[in-house]
Each structure stands twice: as C-alpha cells, then as structure tokens.
Amino acid sequence: MATIEFDNLGHSYHPRPSSPTDYALRRLSQEWEDGKAYALLGPSGCGKSTLLNIISGLLVPSEGRVLFDGLDVTRCTPEERNIAQVFQFPVIYDTMTVYENLAFPLRNRKVPEADVDRRVRQVAEALDLSADLQKRAQRLTPDAKQKISMGRGLVRSDVAAILFDEPLTVIDPHTKWILRRKLRQIHEEYRLTMIYVTHDQVEALTFADKVAVMYEGAMVQLGTPQELFETPRHTFVGYFIGSPGINLMPCTLGGDQAIVEGITIPLAPGSANGLPNHELPKVGAKFELGIRPEFVELTRSGTAGAIPVQVVAVDDLGTSKLATVRMGSHTLKARVSEDQEIPLDAAIRFPTRWTKLYHDSYLVN
Amino acid sequence: MDKVQDNRAWFLIIPVFLIVAFSAILPLMTVVNYSVQEIFGPGQTLFVGTEWFGKVLADDRLHDALFRQIIYSLAVLAIEIPLGIVIALGMPGGRSAKTSLTLVLLALPLLIPFNVVGTIWQIFGRGDIGLAGATFRALGINYNYTSSPLDAWLTVLVMDVWHWTSLVALLAYAGLQSIPPAFYQAAKIDGASKWAVFRYIQLPKMRGVLVIAILLRFMDSFMIYTEPFVLTGGGPGNSTTFLSQYLTQMAVGQFDIGRAAAFSIIYFLIVLLFSFVFYTIITNTGSGEKK
Hints:
Structural class of chain A: alpha+beta
Strand content of chain A: 25-35%
Number of helices of chain A: 9
Structural class of chain B: mainly alpha
Low-confidence stretches of chain B: none
Low-confidence stretches of chain A: none
Distance between the termini of chain A: 35 Å
Oligomer: heterodimer
CATH topology of chain B: MetI-like fold
Helix content of chain B: over 70%
Largest sheet of chain B: 2 strands, antiparallel
Radius of gyration of chain A: 24 Å
Strand order of the largest sheet of chain A: 6-7-8-3-9-10
CATH architecture of chain B: Orthogonal Bundle
Number of helices of chain B: 12
Largest sheet of chain A: 6 strands, mixed
Largest interface: A-B, 27 and 20 residues
Distance between the termini of chain B: 47 Å
Number of strands of chain B: 2
CATH architecture of the largest domain in chain A: 3-Layer(aba) Sandwich
Number of domains of chain B: 1
C-alpha cells in the first residue's frame, strides 16, 4: 500500500511542447491517499491512460515526478514500484492452468510454495474461480479470463497499488455489475489502493471513493461522487456526469446577479467574489450559468422569483419526469418527481444554492 | 425455409474438377498404372503386379538414400527452426526503415532460383577461386566438397540453412508481431524473466506459424533435388544422393519407369506419413488437458 503523489507531473509526446494542447497530460500536483479506491474518468483521448501508464511505470513522464510514500519512483520500472495492472483485454498465459496463472507473479518473486498456495486459493475463492483452478486458462470464457487477469493483480498481498485499465470492456453488462461489486468488496476487505480507468460514469461513481475527471489532458476535478454531482468545478464535469448533464447558459454579470438574455437570475451572495479581478477585462472570457436538471424548480407562473417558460416536452422516466423547457432562446432540462403535475403556464426558479457561475469553463467561487 | 433441391450446382464445380483431374488425379493414376507394369517401350508392357514394390522396398541403395534423407531433414529442422526463432526475436519491431531493410535482406535468399543457389555455393566453396573454399585453404583447413563426404554434407546443409532460414524467421516474426503489447506489459508487471516471457507468451503465440514452418521445411527438405544436384551431383560417391535424386536417376537415367513409379508412390506415402505425424504431435503438444 502506498500514498501516491504527483509533483508537477506532465507529459507530452512532442519532443518540444510549446502550447498546452501539445500535452497529453497537463501539469498536475496532487496527493492520492493510501488504501482508497480512485477512478480516472473521461472520454477517450483525455489523457487518462497516459496518467495510468505513468503511475504504473510503463511510461516515463516528460516533466515532474511521481512519488510513492514520499519516494521518487519516476524512473522505476513497474516491478520496482511493485504495482499490479489489469488491462483492457484479458492477458492470460495460454499454456498454463488457472492455478499456474494466478501463482505466476508470486512464483516469479520466489514466494514460498505454501504461501503461494494459500494466496491463490484465497483469491480464487474471492473471484469464484475455485472450480476452474485446474482448467487450462485458454479454454475459459472472456469474463473468466478477465477474472484471472484481475486475480494475478490481487494475488500479491504487498502491492503498492492495483491499476485497472477499463477492465470490464469485454464483459457483458450483467457480469460487469457482479464483477464490479466483487472488486468493491475486495477493496473494502483488503484496503488496497486501487486506481480504475474508465469512460463510463456509472462504473466510476459506483466503484470509487474519489473520482478524477479528465478532459483534454487536464484533470478538471478530483472529488467524491457527491462533490462531482453537487459542485462540478468545470463545465465538462457538469456535462459528463449526470444524465442528462448540467444546463448551461451564457450570461453576463451584474453584482450578485447573472443576466441571461435580459433575465436576471440571482446568485448566492458573493458568488462573483472569487473572480480573479485582473482577469476580468480579458477579451473572450465568457461567463456561463450552470444548474443541474435535478435542482431546477418547476412551478406555476406568478410564483415569486419564477421565470415563465414554455414546456416543449415531458419524458416520463418511470421514477421521475424530465421536462424540456424553453427560456428565451435556451432549452433547459428539469427533473421533477413522478407525481408532480406540470402546469401549462409553467415557470422555473433557480435556487441560489445550486446555481453555479462558470468563468472560462471553470467554477467561480 | 425449405431447402431448394437443385442439381445444377454440380455444373459449377466442373471447371475445378477438370483442372484438378488433369493436374493431379490423372498423372497420379498414370504413375499407379506404371507401377504395376514392366515397360519395355511405347505400347510394350507387361503386367507384373506388386513385384516392383517388393523390389523397391528391398533395395539397399534406396534404404541408404532414405536414411540419409531422414538425417538430412531432421538436421535442417534442428538448425533452421531454432535459428529462425532467434533471428525473429532479434529483429526490430514497429514500422521503421530498419524493419523494412531487415525484411528485404531476409527475403533475398528466398527470391533466388534453386539452381542459382546451387551454382552460387558451388563457386563459393571451390578451393581455387571460391571465397569460402580459398579462405579455408589459406587457413590451412583441408576442405574439399568434391572429395570429402563430410565436407559435401556440411556444404549442402549450410546451403539449405542459408537459403531457407529466412522463411522460418519471417514466419516467426509474423507470429511475434501479432502479440498485443499488453502481454509484454503484464509479464513485466508479473515479474517474468526474459525466458519466462519467451516460454509462456512468445512460444505459445508462435505455435501456429511454427507448425506451418516445420511442415514446409520438412516437406521441402525431404524432397530436395536441385541444389545438391547442382552442387555435388549426389557425390562424392552416393554421399549426398537424396531420395528425389535417386528417383530421377532411376526414371530418367535408367529409364526404369515401372520401378520408379512404384518408388514414387512409396516416396509420396512417406512424405504424407511424416507430415501427418509432425502435424499431430505439434498440434497436440501443450493443448491437452493437464492433470
């Protein structure tokens, strides 16, 4: 187990990076706690695999350092770092049995055979592989093969961290669910530092204690699933997490109020205080107002502070209703409870607590 | 849906059937026909039954040639397969100029006509003007492939290795290139040694192409004719006379067509048998359920 620390870490595949877009991974300094489950979430090409390979030691970053428990391991091999990694597609040793596959990392490290046997059986038990131990690995189904890949990571009790690179891609949805729960259980039992790369928000949010959202090479937010949902620090987080994503409208500022097409929307007092004043006159800097569909209040026209809107569509999602409304030229989504009636003369209110102001895509606070 | 019964499909396979008949089945049947007759000349034949087969099987010269042939083919496999694998492992990967250059250089020997290969080595090994022969002589090594059976043997063997190891290397290389990088990364993380990576990843993944390489090299070397014919003419004595050369002597040299036909059939069956045995052994090794 180890605490993982990034010190001014960055990576570019260009030999001489000049602009921020040359970076596959932009400058990053952070500390990841020991024994927690982390998820790296983002669309393909956002730099999450680059970061994972830097953590595992398969890739040496072009800038900065990686520290495990305060020790600089930037140039260490995966073996020296003592990490385990599970890849997107199952990697198994075809000619070995399941048992031999699981024992392989231990035997390579000259672990006494009695301990090998104990660990292998323990891990096989945890992953429901006990019945297949003597079978040849090649003959198993893809999900069983992926379980073996995971097992080879879990079998070493002393690993600094276990990394998962979209490990459930090849697994069917039902088994996916079971395997993820299994991983979660194993995590709670052994308290291993786990890092899980995925582009699936459900996977990330259900698996991890903390989720790091990556976008265009930058880590835009690291937080608990709740933080990501309630306080997205970047418009991308708001858009990527949640279904549907956050409502965004370009706006201008007037004191503690946002103005959208002439409509004033009150913000929490002091919302704009966090603005870096020297940046204010910057040309092209834009403000956006963001609110999650779950927090938009749908009421009747005439309610104090409510803005009249036109209801375009209502989708019944079974457990809730999703209303699509038009306010000026903007289309907004509002999630309302199943039994709430949607009035013809509808209006919406923006609770100040949940109405966020974004400046150049970043949350102002 | 009901199956449509339509015999017109047979018409569609007639062209293929005709080609195969004229190129393979009819010649083979002619050989079978010859093998049971004594042939004195055109139209003068005498049915002799299995007499030729009996004679061929009891032929001491043929036993010698067969023995030589087996030793030769096994030596070819024992050298070319491991050597080819080693070369493939050492070849650069990826798409670079270095890779292309290596591939072209490796493919060169395969592009040279067989009798030219024989001629190249014949000159190469000559004591008076050949690079290898003259060098050996200058070094004081008594090397002469026209008088020493051992030298002749070694020359034929080295020539085959020079000519055909590339094929094995290219096949093995293709097998290695198909291994996804994740396997090497996982092995690294599992702490596998270089040997373990070879034994548990590279070798199993190369098995398919190695089966093909072994079969091709076995069949080709078992039927080798042109190169030793050009290089040594089967000599000195009979020391490098392999099966196909003996067969040609019998059929063309002595015009002993009936006997040669019987020999051909036996030869064919031997190649078939060996190939089958090799194929069965290789495909079953390592794939059976372990206890």
